[in-house]
Design a protein that fits this description.
With 644 residues, this protein is mainly alpha-helical. The protein has two domains: 292 residues, ABC transporter involved in vitamin B12 uptake, BtuC, CATH 1.10.3470; 281 residues, Orthogonal Bundle (ABC transporter involved in vitamin B12 uptake, BtuC). The chain has 26 helices and six strands. A two-stranded antiparallel sheet has the order 1-2. A two-stranded antiparallel sheet has the order 3-4. α14 packs across α23 and α24 packs antiparallel against α25. The longest helix is centred in the N-terminal third of the chain and has 32 residues.
Length: 644
């Protein structure tokens, strides 16, 4: 790497940092005031670049006035769309627990993706260059685009503007006050509803502006929303939740490290070589993991205060009554009879296998999210490791199918023990983001290790033994393992260990005062969840006959979250109900329409608004009246916040 290439890389990193900062600053403002982790924020970035493409063409791409009018209008329209989302959707779920608000924003992101698909089509769209800024400056013999230098200046300019807004205006004072104590701001007569709307509009405008400014630099495409929101989350967490200067510092740090990795390229020492360019797939998550381990509240964030009181009391966990056990036995017997209908409905065992695997995956995630209070955004890592463990055991080690299936979860268990040691020392969003970082590191390893994992192509030919070759036989095996695993998870929650997990979740100080080793209990719970998540992945590998890095991707982790939240986190039946509903809906809708994401998103929104405690939570009173008690009521992770 020469001095010239390093200088060019650093300047390119500055332009990338400005774009990252615009998106992350809006996300940080929204979280600081509303405490909502807004998954739809990346969609507003994507909408901004698509709007800019259309508006610039409409206003005249050949003139500077038309280009910048298109960019500015795209940002303003993004602000209006963000305000509309807040008023139409989020105002109706402010009283729901925070995780259900997350589910609502995820549903909005699904809808936004298909709206963009319907309006602009699936093809990448290449926008025009900025008039008057098509040239380049020379630096150390290298040519730097003038437009990139302009983007570099945008970041500090927006940072200064936000500082002036927050320090010199009444609106900024209200934002800072709401960040510290929303209830006190409302008590002083400030309209909390319109303050939230204003902040959402401002944050959405910044995201839309970041997208619009990218139109001369990269094509608009439908994958931008998920990619952007992942990077924005990393920047916000590394900088410190709610810190605007921290967001800029984090964006600068991450963008420059990625730029340097590109400049270094591949380093070879003898027969050994390391591609730094490939590290860019995961470098931001490596940085986030390192920062959160060393400074859990981010570079410029503040340590969260310990809760002053315990969570509201809940009914203790109890075993099912005889009537409840009879109901569950009847349900299992009905599921065992599914192969009898395979002749008339050949697809039924296939769908049944998918649903059962989803139930185990969701139940393992609920185990740490519910009683443990540990929110994981990267649980797909253990699912994927279980799948790859089964494939490697079968094809590389030559193990029999059953041995590979039963040994595969040990790989997921080992990873859960390692990652959990770091993760359980954090809480809330920081814990969730650290789990996401670990999952992305695992994904990058699997994606790039071609010799072992097959890289992006994955692994094929992972089929069950001959006696399990039929769908009906494999369905019965899956049913047996899933039912046994869910019963084991339930039994653990009804044991002293399960009560210790709940105690540590509700009040760490009180639990430790009673002699409970809270960190060790959480660590053990994390390991248990990883093991059963790995078993679900192993079952998936043999059910499909092939695996790919997508099994570890962010999308799969989000699917698990949706299942748990859709069913309801307060009940042991929640992940079961949520997994069945989500998998069945997804299968039904995908086969019915090309715009299945929008239909699924609308369905999730309706369910969230109608049943803010989840499907199982809504059905709980009726079930209690009929069967007295089918299962234990689980924890409430968050308190309801005042309505807007």
């Amino acid at each position: 790497m020469t001095l010239q290439s390093l200088a060019v890389a650093l300047i390119n990193g500055l332009s990338g940092a400005s774009t990252l900062f615009l998106v992350a600053a809006g996300l940080s403002l929204i979280f600081g005031v509303s405490r909502i982790v807004n998954f739809a924020h990346g969609s507003l970035y994507m909408i901004g670049i698509y709007l800019a493409y259309t508006l610039i063409e409409r206003f005249g791409a050949g003139s500077g006035l038309g280009f910048w009018a298109g960019v500015a209008t795209a940002a303003v329209l993004s602000a209006a769309i963000g305000a509309l989302i807040e008023m139409v959707v989020l105002r109706r779920v402010y009283r729901a627990p925070e995780l259900f608000q997350l589910l609502a924003t995820f549903a909005v992101a699904l809808i936004a993706r298909d709206v963009v698909l319907w309006c602009w089509g699936p093809e990448d769209l290449f926008g025009p260059k900025a008039p008057g800024l098509k040239g380049a400056y020379e630096l150390l013999g290298a040519r730097l685009p003038v437009y990139d230098l302009l983007v570099v200046a945008v970041g500090p300019a927006v940072l200064l503007a936000l500082w002036l807004l927050l320090r010199r205006t009444r609106f900024g004072v209200l934002i800072r006050a709401a960040t510290q104590d929303r209830e006190m701001v409302a008590a002083l007569g400030v309209s909390e509803a319109w303050l939230f709307t204003g902040v959402f509009a401002l944050g959405s405008m910044l995201a839309g502006l970041g997208g619009a400014l990218q139109i001369p630099r990269e094509p608009a495409n439908l994958a931008m929303d998920l990619t952007t929101i992942g990077e924005a989350f990393v920047v916000v967490v590394v900088g410190g939740m709610g810190s605007i200067p921290g967001a800029y510092l984090a964006a600068l740090l991450i963008a420059e490290i990625k730029a340097i990795c590109y400049a270094i390229g591949t380093v070879s020492i003898g027969e050994w070589s390391l591609s730094f360019s490939k590290l860019t797939l995961v470098v931001e998550f490596l940085v986030m993991a390192l920062v959160l381990v060393l400074r859990p509240w981010g570079l410029l964030g503040k340590a969260a205060a310990e809760p002053r009181g315990a969570a509201p009391p809940e009914s203790p966990l109890r075993a099912s009554t005889p009537a409840g056990r009879s109901a569950w036995v009847a349900l299992i017997a009905a599921l065992a009879a599914v192969p009898l209908a395979a002749g008339a409905f050949p697809y039924l065992p296939v769908l049944g296998i998918d649903i059962l695997i989803a139930v185990l995956f969701a139940a393992s995630l609920h185990f740490i999210m519910g009683p443990g209070g540990m929110h994981s955004f990267g649980h797909a890592a253990y699912f994927g490791l279980g799948a790859y463990g089964a494939a490697l055991g079968l094809k590389t080690l030559g193990l029999p199918m059953v041995a590979a299936l039963l040994c595969a979860p040990l790989l997921a268990l080992a990873a859960a023990v390692l990652f959990g040691w770091f993760a359980v020392r954090l809480s809330g969003v920081y814990l969730a983001m650290l789990t996401l970082a670990f999952a992305q590191i695992v994904w990058a390893l699997v994606f790039q290790w071609d010799e072992v994992t097959g890289g992006s192509n994955g692994m094929v030919g992972i089929w069950p033994s001959a006696w399990l070759a039929s769908r009906s036989a494999y369905y019965l095996l899956t049913l047996t393992l899933v039912v046994a695993s869910v019963l084991v998870l339930r039994r653990i929650l009804l044991s002293p260990f399960g009560y210790a997990m709940r105690a540590g979740r509700d009040s760490t100080l009180r639990a430790e005062a009673l002699g409970i080793a809270v960190t060790q209990v959480r660590w053990a719970g994390f390991a248990v969840a990883g093991f059963f998540g790995g078993l679900a992945g192993a079952l998936h590998a043999f059910a499909k006959g092939a695996i790919s890095p997508e099994t570890i991707g962010v999308n799969h982790s989000i699917d698990g979250l949706v299942m748990v939240l859709l069913g309801g986190i307060q009940s042991m039946a929640g992940p079961v109900v949520g997994a069945v509903a989500f998998t069945w809906l997804q299968d039904l809708i995908i086969r019915s329409t090309d715009y299945w994401r929008a239909v699924l998103g609308v369905t999730i929104l309706v369910l969230v608004m109608a049943f803010p405690q989840g499907l199982a939570g809504a059905l709980g009173p009726g079930i209690e009246r009929r069967f007295k008690r089918l299962g234990p009521s689980g924890p409430t992770l968050t308190r309801d916040r005042p309505g807007a």
